[in-house]
Design a protein that fits this description.
Elements (H helix, E strand, L loop, with lengths): L2 H15 L9 H10 L4 H8 L5 H10 L8 H8 L10 H12 L5 H8 L9 H14 L5 H11 L2 E9 L2 E6 L2 E4 L2 E4 L3 E6 L16 E5 L2 E5 L2 H19 L3
Helix pairs in contact: 1-2, 1-3, 1-5, 4-5, 8-9, 8-10
Length: 245
């Protein structure tokens, strides 16, 4: 397994893990592995316990002819986006979603989702905007809470405007609803955590840099190419999700 890829996976997995939302309970171990850049088989075993993301990694890896779910190109495809997503065909998406999530969804929701699966890609934001929503967390009396949760859970990005103690102030497009449809709103300032117990993943970030954000945690400084891919795949995921509102 690629230890380099496992480290990059940990950059994104740590955000929800610190709240106990996903993965094993020892979030401090994951923080230390990634912040110190020291990986071994123990990190891989931690990462395999993220049962929300890991099956997607295996799907992307298999479609691209590798057994290494932590190949860095696989990890990047899932969290940020790259050409490896295109190798996952419609039949694979239907099978994967049907087996994993079909039993948890109402028949109507599964049918609605099936209408877009020929075009979907196994990116994290697909999971947030489609699977998460189909679990009944979007719309109705709890819609405000659900929208906030989806906004936190998606892989997003923000431009660093200032650095304050253990936080970054970033300018970021929040997830909003317009006439019942998902959209990205006008940019707004938001505080995101960059360090916990004096450990973080973006210590070199400076004003003007763009960082990826997951559950209000700064994951990594994005290159212009990575930012462009994340913007495109996010727009695609939102557009397809809105076809089945």
């Amino acid at each position: 397994m690629s230890l380099r890829g496992a480290l990059r996976f940990g950059r994104y997995a740590f955000g929800p893990n610190r709240f106990g939302y996903c993965g094993p309970p020892d979030y401090k171990a994951l923080l230390e592995y990634v912040a110190l850049g020291e990986a071994d088989q123990g990190l891989v075993e931690l990462a395999r316990h993220f049962d929300g993301a890991y099956p997607y990694l295996k799907l992307i890896a298999h479609a691209n002819g590798t057994d290494d779910a932590f190949d860095e190109r696989v990890v990047e495809a899932y969290w940020v986006g790259n050409d490896w997503l295109r190798s996952v065909g419609p039949a694979q998406m239907h099978e994967h979603v049907g087996q994993r999530f079909g039993p948890r969804m109402a028949k109507r929701d599964l049918e609605w989702l099936g209408a877009t699966l020929d075009l979907e890609r196994p990116h994290h934001n697909f999971h947030v905007f489609q699977i998460y929503r189909r679990a009944g967390l979007h719309g109705g009396p709890g819609s405000t809470v659900a929208l906030s949760a989806m906004d936190s859970c998606r892989t997003s990005w923000g431009t660093v405007r200032s650095i304050e103690a253990n936080e970054l102030v970033v300018e970021r497009h929040p997830l909003v609803t317009e006439a019942g449809r998902l959209a990205l709103g006008p940019p707004a300032l938001k505080r995101v955590l960059r360090q916990l117990d004096n450990l973080g993943f973006v210590d070199g970030a400076k004003p003007g840099d763009t960082v990826s954000v997951h559950w209000d945690w700064a994951c990594e400084v994005l290159s212009p190419g990575a930012l462009s891919r994340l913007e495109r795949v996010t727009a695609r995921c939102i557009g397809l999700a809105n076809k089945t509102v």
